[in-house]
Amino acid sequence: MPRRTRTVDPVMATRRAAEFTTRSIKTSSKDAALRLAVSMTDLTTLEGADTSGKVHALCHRAMHPVPDHVRLEVPPVAAVCVYPNLIDVARDALRGSAVRIASVATGFPSGQYPLDVRLADVADAVAAGADEIDMVINRGAFLSGRYDEVQDEIAAIKRTCGAAHLKIILETGELGSLDRVRLASDLAIEAAASEPHEEDGLVDGEVFIKTSTGKISPAATMPVVLVMLESIRDHFLAHGTKIGMKPAGGIRTAKSAIHNLVMVRETLSEAWLSPSLFRFGASSLLDDLGRQIQRRALGSYSGKGDVPTG
After folding, report:
1. Which of 121, 167, 186, 210 is catalytic?
2. What is the average pLDDT value for the chain, to the nearest integer?
3. I want to staple 82 with a disulfide (CB 3.0 to 4.6 A). Which of 40, 69, 86, 147 is the partner?
4. What angle do CA 82, 104, 181 make, to 5 degrees?
5. Among 177, 252, 251, 169, which residue's Cα sits nearest to residue 210?
6. Are 65 and 290 in contact (CB under 8 A)?
7. Distances in Å between the alpha carbon of 195 and those of 9, 157, 181?
8. Cα-Cα end-to-end distance for the chain
9. Pair 153, 115: CB distance under 8 Å
10. How far is it between the farthest Cα atoms of the chain?
């Protein structure tokens, strides 16, 4: 393996990750964390049966994530993520809002299409109005040890994104070990950072690394997220640029989201506790965040149907 590979002790990583679940959090901090987690959510629909109507409904929920959201002071989500052919629908539905449009491209979810096809996919999505591109790496090349090929493809996709921000999906459930998760994280960050949109360097949050497509399990386990955060930390210490992080797949409860936010704060810093640097790719998480916010604000859980699902 390349000399840049860093060995990860899986026992210690698991132990350190577990420690973040034991932190005591003040009531006021917990209330703020729930709303922050809402603002960090990428509300996503990536199904073969997606329709314009479904995307319209998703966009409405993105802007109004919890009933009575104004009185409860709940912000909109960070972004809506759809297939490229539905970007126009999302753009119209979100017009005038601060919610960003993300689109999967590059032969999602396999990443196995020819590079020219994947690049055309990205170019079309950006031209249609995507603010962010969620790409998936070529795991076949990575697992075969063709690391230069993986990096060259990421760099080409980053160039094609132009001003659109790039989230690089590693599909950690297919990588097989924390050593490979760390290597894939380092390679992805290095490749994307070599192609900044601005002449004076990469802008903070211009690049994210992301655990999963949501199609493979396991995905965003806490040890995996911790290893990826450590890669981001080491890049920041070496270069001063803040890379974003997006755990996706498997985070379904408010409690789990808060554990992840604690891990981000203690591994990186409070600077990463912002939608510009941290996202949750877990649409079902929004259901529980809404229930917990309502319970804490109103004194009881919402009734059936009070918090929309989608």
Report:
1. 210
2. 93
3. 86
4. 130
5. 169
6. yes
7. 32, 9, 22
8. 43
9. yes
10. 56
Q: What are the tokens at 29?
A: 């901090």
Structure tokens at 167: 């989230």
Per annotation, catalytic residue among 134, 186, 287, 288: 134
> From CA 69, how far away is CA 78, in angstroms rounded?
15
Tokens encoding 15: 């132990």
pLDDT at 274: 98
- Name the phi and psi angles at 247, rounded to 5: -75, 135
Contact (CB, 8 A) for 122 and 133: yes
E strand intervals along 33-154: 42-44, 79-82, 100-104, 132-136
Among 121, 167, 246, 288, the one annotated catalytic: 246
Residue 81: pLDDT over 60:
yes
Three-state DSSP class for 217?
coil
Answer yes or no: is pLDDT of 2 > 60.
no
Rounded Cα distance between 166 and 170, Å, is 13
* 295 alpha-carbon distance from chain centroid: 27
Clarify whether 42 is annotated catalytic.
Answer: no
- 218: cis peptide before it, omega within 30°? yes
Give the model confidence (pLDDT) of 266-308 as tens digits.
999 999 999 999 999 977 899 999 999 999 888 766 554 454 4
User: Which single residue is written with the structure tokens 């985070």?
Assistant: 251
172 Cβ contact partners less than 8 Å away, ≥ 6 residues apart: 181, 184, 211, 212, 218, 219, 220, 224, 228
Q: Is pLDDT of 252 > 70? A: yes
CA distances from 109 to 105, 155, 212, 214 (A): 8, 19, 9, 9
pLDDT exceeds cutoff 70 at 224: yes
215 is an active site residue: no
Question: Annotated catalytic, 306?
Answer: no
Domains of the chain are: 10-298 (3.20.20.70)
